[in-house]
Records
---
Amino acid sequence: MSTRISTGMVFNQSVNLMLDKQARLMHLQQQLATGQKMVTAKDDPVGAGTAVGLDRALAELERYGKNADHVQNRLGLQENALAQAGDAMARITELTVRANNPALSEDDRRAIASELVTIQDQLLSLANSTDGSGRYLFAGTADDTAPFARGGGQVTYNGDQTQRRIEIAPETHVLDAVPGSEIFMRVRTGDGTLDANADAANTGTAVLTGFGRAPGNWSGERYDIVFTSAETYELQNTAGEVIRTGEYRSGEDIVLEEGLRLRLEGAPAAGDTFAIGPSETRDVFGTLDRLIGALQMPFGSPEEKAAQQNLLQSSLRDIARASEHMIDARAAGGAQLAALDNAQALREANAITFETTLSSLRDLDYADAIGRYQIETAALQAAQTVFTQMQSMSLFDRIR
């Protein structure tokens, strides 16, 4: 077998060699100019695909970070609003305790009621707080309109009960601000489980001073203690049926076999009723309305004083429970803020890992690239020298 050699073939080989060297040099120049190892995806198809996936992961981390910034702003504003509401509730408690002082005049109590009206307006304003972008904090997902409005002598809630779950890291979510219905409206009365109250129509001087659980199995039913005289009473169920009768002594517990007890002081009148049973729910504003109404009641006769005392004692219990309810809401918000901090640390750690991997895939090793550039430059120069020398050569010189 023989190989045919021609002048054209030799020239073409030299030209192709120089073009190849020039292409390599141009590629190295692009790498050195951009600092990127992969100028095009064909340089490393597998690495390019991996890099695109890492870019997407970094973009997701950035989106998570924006979500976290938004919800952190709202939770921080919720914390501020609830802190102010807690201070307001503490002032209400202080004023209520002061109002229980029998030495206060009717004018003093009306002055306290006037301050309570101002605090109530402050609480309503806090309940309608916004996040700085026009969205209401305590409206749930219906946050484009004010959630609380006063009308018909009461405050109503116009938001919804939905609490957003916001993703702030891969498979990590936090809850947005708590809907106002869960903070200001659905507050358990009494001790949160059990409550007792004097009937507003009572005409005696008996004051409810305490209640609680007693030995026995309470079924969760409500009972009425209806006095038939100043010293005797009937225990009735919700159907009005008489379960038993008993004798009353001022200052002593009335213990029910059903597992409940309550204590009265004073002299009840025939027909006076005291109820004990499961706690109901009442909004904070309604509790304040009851308290303000109690302070504006006449305070002359012993019967009027007893009626006012019963309302003040009930309001004081409900205000204490509302204060605890707000503290619980603040604690829940604090837990979400702590979760935000943990998620930020996770995002930062993941971002560093992704960026390190991307750097190993994309970033150019300048020392290696410069070395290869010098080698390719020398090789191109050698190829050009050989080509120059070959230009003066011809196969016809060999056959002369």
---
Amino acid sequence: MTIQEVPQGRLRSPFYPRQADLDRLFQWHDWKGYASAEGFYDTTLEYFSVRNSAGVFDLTPMTKYRITGPDALVYINRLVTRDMSKIKPGRVAYAVWCDDEGQVIDDGTIFHLKQGEYRLCSQERHMAWLQMSAIGMDVTIVDETEEVCGLALQGPTSCSILKAMGIEGIETLRPFGMATYAFQDTEIMISRTGFTGDLGYEVWLSNDKALDLWDAMFDAGKIYGIMAMGTEALEQARIEAGFIAAYVDFLPANVTVRTGRSRSPFELGLDWLVDFKKPNFNGRRALAREKRNGSTWQLVKLDIEGNKPAHHSYIYSTSKGKKDVGFITSAAWSPVCKQNVALGTVRSPHGKVGEKLYVEIYYQREMHWSKMMAEATVVDKPFWDPPRKRATPPGPF
């Protein structure tokens, strides 16, 4: 593949030269100005690399903001619904931030790099909102997206690969922990985080060392089944893990036009991220009112009968299909779970664990469209949640 075959006008990750050498599908999409691969070889092969060995996903396009200053903690705590005073240096927190109406603008990870210094990572760009939220506070917000690159190394052999690279002590890193490690003649930051619901790590470094990291990782990973993976394989893995995605499972509140199209943390199953015991935060009053009065919508994880994925399907309370109570936002057939799984949103009071619902599925075989009403059960656990994800140290593979 030549560099001209990537759509013009898009930024290219510093890992792109190695990705181009591997690419056999020539399918790229825009991720906030960067060219990001849908896949490299075959979605199924890439997916199984995550579950059976190790898959590598390019995180460089993820938006990265460095937040520093005397009021950094006060600012972060005001911005998000979670109590960030509990997140010590060297730890990573998943968090959401809302508008004044308690509607989610986005979710992301916040890295507590050191005292008074944070890095906020998200799928979308939010500089205008972050700056507006900082009025009156002594903080500095810098967009370092183009200065910091990253690779997600995910799967059961991920720890073994990092150890084979000479990353000493990586096996002691706990979930949602982060640390700096010596790599060649520089330092890299590694966090035990990821979007696959499996054992995995994210490696962060400056652009000038990107190709050195890629080469070292793939050299060490040869005997461990390492494989580059694209967005399609990652999407399948994150649905199995029960993770939500912006513009798929919810719309950021600052882009919606019609009322009722955005969602609160409670409506996304993220009530555990809302802490009313901490000082005031954006959306607190609206969320307290919703807590008292109840939510309109409820996110559900659905175990659906059959093997036909329920893409874009309506959800009904009875098999008669007379009145819909919600709709599917993400769906997939899970090869490792041997389940037809989906994430959806339903109107309250529907969505209780164990409730039986019905999904209207349309599927095509040999140009012929068929319809079925499939029974679905509301579940409360991730579809894929292996013990190795939490084991410290991880077992050898």
